Amino acid sequence: MRLERGFSWDQQKENRSMKRNLIIAGIFVSILGASFQLKRRAVVEAAAVQAPRFEVDPLWPKPLPNHWVMGSTVGVSVDADDHVWIVHRGNNDPGELKAETSPQQTECCYKAPFVMEFDQAGNLLRHWGGPGEGYDWPQDMHGITIDFKGNVWLGASGVGAVGAPARPSAPPGRGGGTRVPRVKGENDLTAPLHDEMILKFTRDGKFLLQIGKPGQSKGSNDPENVRKAAKIFVDPKTDEAYVADGYGNHRVIVFDAETGKYKRHWGAYGNKPEDKYLGEYNPDAPPAQQFGNPVHCADVSNDNLVYVCDRINDRIQVFRPDGTFVKEAFIAKKTLAEGSVWDIAFSKDPAQKYIYVADGANEKIWILERDTLQILTSFGDGGRQPGQFYEVHNLAVDSKGNLYSTETTNGHRLQRFLYKGLAPVTKMDQGVVWPKTSAK
């Protein structure tokens, strides 16, 4: 090796060692810099992921008058005036209704009317519901929708035998009636079930239309009758009623909303629906090619996509209005019990960028990006306090973006969550979204 002029062998060796160390140090600094930039970019990108943020309104609605109490609250809808409508089953525990006994045991309480309307201040405005002339009142209420014309649609999921007395309404200041017990065989087409119809009323409770008749369903390909339908959505663009059908059938069925005339129906993946029992849900098995029970919602977005809640199979399926399958997404796929996808509502922006998903098994509300069906975050927890849930069942959104929820079985509750705008997603599960309080 040639020696550089003026330097000894040892000096040149030391110089080469120093250069090598400087090169290594430079490479190390470059790696650290690149790593820092990647981490910084990840933080920036994470902060750029935003989702709607909510806080529970613990003082809404106001207490009901007349010592009224709600039962399982199984439907919520918001009308064009931002009034909030609910339907409940009136299936209160007898110990809660001691004022209804004869002789009367206590001052409180009475079963509230089945259908109730609240204004934005939480005041009760209208209330009605119960058996009447010209229609068959359900054994068990399920789902309420106020359509774009202001009409009120009611679903029904009762399994009382045909001929059994329907649960009567509660007159002003009084309750009435006893809960019709559930029976086995909701998937048995030979069982004489009662609730095989949907009903349409005016805002004041005047009867307008009934589709289907008790005890007449011939299964998931019957064009005339439903079978324990869970929820109705009326598309203002076509005046068609999309029915999530339901607890007995395995399909979405579409009717003309004015005449009740049958239009079309389909099952999972756009298949012809079948009524065979699919067995218990297995999250590790291939996706079921048919809807399970219940088909719990069928809502149409502004861009003409139909979002269907296949509750027991933990999934949302998306279709075009003719039943053509588009895509699907699983929510908390390992959920067993009653399933994770109970209801959906769209955010109020014109693009409906977000979907809210009620999960009454895991006791939370998921927030998804609608385009990708990617979960962004969730909020809620099980419990009785405001902001907690006991089987959160239905969702609705008002013009301000506020979110309303109802709770079934022993939940017996309507809650409001105030929209607080978009915020960076900092954690997947927000827990109970209690109001922020300022220090005094």
Task: Please describe the structure with a list of short key phrases separated by commas or semicolons.
1 helix, 32% strand, four-stranded antiparallel sheet, Neuraminidase, globular, 2 domains, mainly beta, single chain, 440 residues
What does it look like?
The protein is mainly β and 440 residues long. It has one helix spanning 9-48, and strands spanning 50-56, 68-69, 73-78, 84-88, 110-111, 115-118, 124-128, 141-146, 152-156, 198-201, 207-211, 231-235, 240-245, 251-256, 262-266, 295-300, 306-310, 315-319, 325-330, 343-346, 354-359, 364-369, 374-379, 392-397, 403-407, 413-424. Strand 22 (364-369) and strand 23 (374-379) form a beta hairpin. 42% of the residues are buried.
List the helices and strands and how they pair.
Layout: H1 9-48, E1 50-56, E2 68-69, E3 73-78, E4 84-88, E5 110-111, E6 115-118, E7 124-128, E8 141-146, E9 152-156, E10 198-201, E11 207-211, E12 231-235, E13 240-245, E14 251-256, E15 262-266, E16 295-300, E17 306-310, E18 315-319, E19 325-330, E20 343-346, E21 354-359, E22 364-369, E23 374-379, E24 392-397, E25 403-407, E26 413-424
Parallel strand pairs: 2-5
Antiparallel strand pairs: 1-26, 3-4, 4-6, 6-7, 8-9, 9-10, 10-11, 12-13, 13-14, 14-15, 16-17, 17-18, 18-19, 20-21, 21-22, 22-23, 24-25, 25-26
Brief overview:
With 440 residues, this protein is mostly beta strands. It is 9% helix and 32% strand. The N and C termini lie far apart (80 Å).
